[in-house]
Amino acid sequence: MDEIQLLKENFIKIFNEDFEHVYFSPGRVNLIGEHTDYNGGHVFPCALSIGTYALVTERNDRKVCAYSMNFKDLGIIEFSLDNMVNNKKDDWANYPKGVMKIFEDNGYKMKNGFNVLFFGNIPNGSGLSSSASLEVLTGTIINDLFGFNVDMIDIVKMSQEAENNFIGVNCGIMDQFAVGMGKYNNAILLDCNTLKYEYSEIDLKGYKILIGNTNKKRGLADSKYNERRSQCETALHEIQKIKNINALGELTEEEFEEVKDVITDPVNRKRAKHAVYENQRTIKAVKALKRDNLELFGKLMVDSHNSLRDDYEVTGIELDTLVELILKNDGVIGSRMTGAGFGGCTVSIVKDESVDEIIKNVTPAYKEKIGYEPSFYVVTISDGARKLQ
User: Going by DSSP bridges, is the β-strand pair 114-120/63-68 parallel, antiparallel, or unpaired?
Assistant: First the structure.
């Protein structure tokens, strides 16, 4: 709890009063099933032991005063509950503001503002969902402060709505879902079409989840994310002319091969192939885990990365180099990019005793090729967003 003690001291320094509540919301990593969420397929994320903390004290006016230890130079960002608009000068605070606005739009009226100090130990822009962590954390805070009794799935949906409609990033639901619904030592097989989900225990005895950060920053809103999304939508519309489906995720590999020639643009055909095959890979990977077949799970992770590189083209030299270098080491079960791509992180499953050796081997080789070092984090699987005290 040293982290919270440090935050407490900062809270008192910044707001000249003590805090009343502490909340935590995890980051997430997707083990397999990338760019399938908005294609109506399955994903397999888990919540992480790293995430975002918030210390909160209620105010007796309509102001929210927000401070982030991650963006100290921006100072306290203030806004009124009566005027919640996306304002560029409010920078990162637009994320929590967006969630508050969506809550209000859904009839959950906040009776007063609050002072809040945030601190995240998720690397920013790394693709481990610092934005979803902040959004679901905000929903958890206001749900608790004002006794709204909204269940977590609805907090998740409103957080996604904030990102889509307030921030303007057309993300699927996976990030917010994993952050809100995470469960200790479990990953979640989520059908993004129906929101049906099941927990799958991950027994990593003897293994660790190793996150490798390329340290190449990427901005989702201005990346090619929305372009990939519309390429898949175009492919889907063409398939729908001859087959009655609502999403690419409904197709098996065989069904896709039968109809793929109706997709006129060869690039869109590759995008749709990834969406279909990745969805099936995810289902196979979860079955492999249930049979304690970590080796097959690892192979499917590598296949996933190759498809994201070749068919979906969202990796880039940094991610490809990092995965390639990690896979050269003994004790690696599987490795792949995770998140939207174009930078961000890799996720690998590696033997306990190999972790230090892998980091030692990969760091200088990556620096030699890319020009700067990667960062590594050994993480465990955690529960979802919650009140700590």
Answer: parallel
Q: Which of 2, 37, 144, 175 is catalytic?
A: 175
Q: In this structure, are strands 114-120 and 207-213 parallel, antiparallel, or unpaired? A: unpaired
Please give the Cα distance from 384 to 179 (Å, whole number).
5
pTM, whole model, 2 decimals? 0.90
Helix axes 225-240, 266-290, angle to 10 degrees: 100
Structure token digits, residue 231: 């390429």
Whether the CA torsion 215, 216, 219, 223 is positive or negative: it is negative
Rounded to whole angstroms, how far apart are CA atoms 126 and 375? 10
The edge-to-edge listing of strands for the beta sheet with 386-387 is 77-80, 63-68, 114-120, 45-58, 21-30, 386-387
Rounded Cα–Cα distance for residues 50 and 60 (Å): 32
Cα 235 from Cα 16, distance rounded (Å):
56
Tally the C-alpha atoms within 13 A of residue 254's C-alpha that lie toward its C-beta: 0
Q: Is the distance from CB of 349 to CB of 326 less than 8 angstroms? A: no
Two structure tokens written together for 203: 């027994």
- For residues 74 and 260, what is the distance between their CA atoms, to the nearest angstrom? 50
| Helix segments in 67-221, DSSP class H | 94-105, 130-145, 152-161, 174-181
Annotation marks residue 303 as catalytic: no
- Which segments of the chain does DSSP mark as H helices, in order? 2-15, 94-105, 130-145, 152-161, 174-181, 225-240, 253-259, 266-290, 294-310, 317-327, 355-370
- Do 150 and 143 contact (CB within 8 A), yes or no? yes
Q: What is the mean pLDDT of each run of 10 residues along the chain (389 residues)?
A: 85 96 96 94 95 97 97 97 96 97 98 97 76 96 98 97 92 91 96 92 90 80 77 98 96 98 98 98 95 94 98 95 98 94 92 97 98 94 96
CA 338 to CA 262: how far, in whole Å? 30
Tokens encoding 263 = 């997709």
- Comparing CA positions, the residue from 116, 148, 147, 88 lying closest to residue 25 is 116
H or E stretch including 77? strand 77-80
